[in-house]
Structures are given as C-alpha cells and as structure tokens.
Amino acid sequence: MKHLFILLILGLMASAASAQLGVSYHQSSVPYLGINYELNNQYMAEVRVGANNYFEHLAFELTANYFIVHDPSYDLYGGIGGRTTHFAGLVVPVGVNLYPFDNKDFGFHIEAAGMFGETAVFRADWGIRYRFGSTGVPSEKEEE
Q1: How large is the C-alpha radius of gyration of the chain?
Q2: What is the total count of domains within the chain?
Q3: 8: burial class by Cβ within 10 Å (0-12, 13-18, 19+)?
Q4: DSSP-based three-state secondary structure for 142
Q5: Sign (positive/negative) of CA torsion 51, 111, 104, 102?
Q6: How many other C-beta atoms lie within 10 A of the C-beta of residue 90?
Q7: What is the mean pLDDT of the chain?
Q8: Which range marks the domain in which residue 123 is found?
Q9: Do residues 91 and 62 touch, judged by C-beta distance below 8 A?
Q10: What is the CATH number of the domain that holds 101?
C-alpha cells in the first residue's frame, strides 16, 4: 500500500506541466539514492531509497521540500517527510544544492536532517544531483 501511494504521488507530480525530474546520490553513514521532481521552481518532492544495504533492510523516504532561495547557482531548501524501516519516523531536512558549472543541470548538495522515531538521529550528508531537461532557471550566460 505504501508503494502504491508513493507511485500515485509521483504520477500526479509528473503530470504537472512545470515539473522537472532529477536524480541524486546522498553519501553519509545512512546513504541513499533519490528521484525528485521540482515543481514551479518552488517545491521539490523526493523519493529516496537506502543504498549499501541488504534488500531486507532497505529503507524508503519521502520528503517534501520548499526552496527558501532558488537561484541559478544554488538552492537553499527545507522540508519535512517520513522514513520506513531503519530509523523509521519523521525526517526534517535542510540543505543546499550547488550548481557551479555553466550547465545548471549537474551539481552538488549538502544536507542535514533530523530523523525522529523510536530514536532521534542527526544525519548529515553530501552528494551529487542531476536535473533532466531545462531547469526553468536561466543560466548566468542567458542573463547577460
């Protein structure tokens, strides 16, 4: 049932005309892969799956993030979400996406997140992010 709900949410987001698909890898002691959609250059929903685990220990995470600052070279975001299996419970991420190259589709990110459930865990990670297609944010060259 959880998986059906996640697929439904992703399907609705994909149908939004201003949605943009992206992928990410987050490296930490609790690493994960993510698939995300940016909506209206203001919101980012991300489905994450734990990496470097046995299949029976896979954890899934769904976050809804708001871009506090959305610039061609960086995004500052905060959000809320939930996590299953290992460290199950509430997730509260705060992060920065950095796009230092002329092609603003590829970048890096850093994120800190509180994970609250049976135990409280503070997770900090770093990684890479790739956005498919036009970002909706002009590159620095286009602004000149």
Answers
A1: 15
A2: 1
A3: exposed
A4: helix
A5: negative
A6: 14
A7: 83
A8: 2-143
A9: no
A10: 2.40.160.20
Burial class (CB in 10 A: 0-12, 13-18, 19+), 59: middle
Q: How far is CA 44 from CA 18, 51, 117, in A?
A: 12, 21, 23
57 burial type by CB count under 10 A (0-12 exposed, 13-18 middle, 19+ buried): exposed
Tell me which DSSP letter residue 4 carries.
H
Residue with tokens 């890479």: 128
Eight-class DSSP state of 7 = H
Spatial neighbors of 15 by CB under 8 A, at least 6 apart, are none
d(CA 88, CA 60) in angstroms, rounded, equals 9
Distance CA 64, CA 46 (A): 7
The tens digit of pLDDT for each residue in 31-44 reads 899 999 999 889 99
Q: What is the pTM (predicted TM-score) of this model?
A: 0.76
Give CA angle at 119 (114, 120), nearest 5°.
20
Q: Nearest CA to 95 among 120, 74, 71? A: 74
